[in-house]
Amino acid sequence: MNLKSRLEASLAPGQLRLLHLAADAASQSGLPLYIIGGSVRDLILGSAIQDLDLTVEGDAIALARALAKRHGGRVTAHTKFGTAKWFLPKDLQTESSETLDLISARSETYKHPAALPTVKMGSMDDDIRRRDFTINTLAIRLDGDRFGELRDDLGGMDDLKQGIVRVLHAKSFMDDPTRMYRAVRYAERYGFKIAEETLTLIPQARPLIEKLSAQRIRHELDLILEEWNAAAMLARLAELDLLQPIHPALTFDESMRERLSHLHTYRGLQHLSPWNITRGEQMRPSDLGWLLWLMSLSQEQVSALNDRLHFTADLLASLFAVSKMYAAQSSFIGLKPSQCVERLESYPLAAVEAVGYAAKDPRVKECFDEYISKWRYIKPHLNGDDLKALGVEPGPRYAVILRRLRNAWLDGEVKTEAEEKALLKALLDPPPAST
Ligand code: CTP
């Protein structure tokens, strides 16, 4: 099978030119050059290639240096892994990238189950066999007149056509238990099935999940929470009993699924520029995913989970905050805007936004949503300098007065600058108390 025309149609002209330059240099050095893995999978499934990583059967660093010598730019290399990054000269930079990654084909072996792999330079055959699933083993040859030729050693094309996620060998999940999470991610992303024999390998690898570092397991869950249908993936993980072995506090139920559906709204809205202007800051979808998923946990559960997953400091603070606010939702009913603001100001914005998505009672929702989109920006027109000019003695009283003015704006007590000034005058110069 030749994918030349598919490749040419899917790549931007600049990318294609780059590909040919690399292919020519590889041919001249007698080195087979390939695109392999996720890019080929996605190309065959009909999406554009995002990262143009090239794998060379031989020394990728030498190839990158030869390219830079001929065409300009510079190279950084990781000799240990045989990988090189070519920082492209201006005339070769494309809209999507200023660099090109060149990777030496490698073998990966595992010293013990769940260990990080030991990486060695290897053949293309090694590089194909080190991979997780057959659908990720497809490669396209780029050098010489074999440009576009599909290499399908392990039946990846058949599995891709039939929609099957299948490991390459029976020890795959034991070598790398994160692959169980990857299997679910691919299956749900593409609407594929996990092969029956692959599913039967889960029980023996499940006890190894506890050996995975916090960073590795969190990374897999982050990747899942970045996906549009994260909820379906988590539901499937729960069904396969792959959440509890991470930590008993990790479960998945209907209310979690419902909350996570708001990830769609967020992802959709993220692309609308007026919304960006109103909301200002953006958070990673995976962070919002964590907050929506776990907001029903208690403070103790969040803390225990953090011992296992080592959340970033910001995410942890937001997780504690959503847990508190979610549990106390009814206490936000019937508050004046200024009271909402006063309470919500002490919480991280991401946490407030997440509870805003999840809240069902419209009165609670309003408090959170209006705070995010409007109320937090409302400030009085007068400031400390104005107070000084009016002869108010500087001190803690300033903050009290300015807050009082802000609250008056928030609650609609003042609607114009003149009304604000009148209120200030009344505050500074209260009418004598009647006796
Ligand atoms: N890989 C693997 N085992 C892992 C992680 C990655 O075998 N635990 C291999 C897969 O063959 C994969 C390749 O390394 O195709 C690159 O990994 P990654 O960039 O994570 O995946 P992509 O294929 O690009 O898929 P995605 O669309 O999820 O990014």
Protein topology:
Elements: H1 4-10, H2 13-28, E1 33-36, H3 38-45, E2 54-56, H4 60-71, E3 74-78, E4 83-87, E5 99-104, E6 106-109, E7 118-121, H5 124-129, E8 139-141, E9 150-151, H6 156-162, E10 164-165, H7 172-175, H8 178-190, E11 193-194, H9 196-199, H10 202-205, H11 214-225, H12 230-239, H13 254-260, H14 262-270, H15 273-279, H16 285-294, H17 299-309, H18 313-327, H19 337-344, H20 349-358, H21 362-373, H22 384-389, H23 397-410, H24 417-428
Parallel strand pairs: 2-5, 10-11
Antiparallel strand pairs: 1-2, 1-8, 3-4, 4-5, 6-7, 8-9
Helix pairs in contact: 2-4, 8-11, 8-12, 11-16, 12-13, 13-16, 14-16, 16-18, 16-20, 17-18, 18-20, 20-21, 23-24
Structure description:
The chain is an alpha+beta fold and 435 residues long. It folds into four domains: 4-162, Beta Polymerase, domain 2, CATH 3.30.460; 169-245, Hydrophobic Seed Protein, CATH 1.10.110; 253-377; 384-428, no CATH class. The chain is built from 24 helices and eleven strands. Strands 3-4-5-2-1-8-9 form a seven-stranded mixed beta sheet. It has a two-stranded antiparallel ribbon with strand order 6-7. Strands 10-11 form a two-stranded parallel ribbon. A hairpin with an 8-residue loop joins strand 6 (106-109) and strand 7. Bound molecules: cytidine-5'-triphosphate. Cytidine-5'-triphosphate is lined by residues 37-38, 131-132, 136, 176, 178-179, 182.
